[in-house]
Amino acid sequence: QVQLVESGGGLVQAGGSLLLSCAASGSIVSNNVMGWYRQPPGKQRESVAGISTGGVTNIADSVKGRFTISRDSAKNTVYLHMNNLKPEDTSVYYCNLRELRARGGDYWGQGTQVTVSS
Fold first, then answer.
1. pLDDT in tens, 15-49
2. Could you tell me which of 59, 64, 72, 65 has the C-alpha nearest to residue 21?
3. 8 A C-beta contact, residue 93 and residue 38
4. Residue 6: which residues within 8 A CB-CB, separation 6 or more?
5. Is there a contact between 45 and 39 (Cβ–Cβ < 8 Å)?
C-alpha cells in the first residue's frame, strides 16, 4: 500500500503563487508516475500535470506556462509550482501515484483546496 499526503493549498489572490507538495510513503514501486489532478465544483476530475520517475512531464494546456511539476525521488515527493493563478484554478487538487507495471496500483491523496480570489 502507498499513502499520499498533500500540503500547501490555501487562499490566494489572482496573479499569486502557491506550491503544492505530496509525499508518498509505503511500498512504492520504483517505476511510477506521480501527478496532480483537480476537480472544480460540479465538474469531473481532470489531469493537471504528471511526472515519471525518469523525469518526463506532462502539463495540461489550461495551465501550461503557469504551472510546473517537479519531483524529489529521494524523498518520494512531487511538487506543483503554480504561478499567475486565476479564479478558474479554484479547485480541490489531488495527488496521484500510478505504478507502471502489470496490475499496478493507482493511489490518491485526500485532496487539498486551492481558492483563487479575483
1. 999 999 999 999 988 899 999 999 988 899 999 99
2. 72
3. yes
4. 20, 21, 22, 93, 94, 95, 109, 110, 111, 112
5. yes
DSSP per residue, 6-59: EE--EEEETT--EEEEEEEEES--SSEEEEEEEE-TTS--EEEEEEETT--EEE
Say if residues 50 and 106 touch (Cβ distance below 8 Å).
no
- CA pair distance 63, 93, nearest whole angstrom: 13
Q: Label residue 43 exposed, middle or buried (CB < 10 Å: 0-12, 13-18, 19+).
A: exposed
CA-wise closest residue to 107 among 42, 12, 25: 25
Whether the per-residue pLDDT at 67 is higher than 90: the answer is yes
Q: How many residues does the chain have?
A: 118
Q: Which three cell numbers stand for residue 51?
A: 511526472
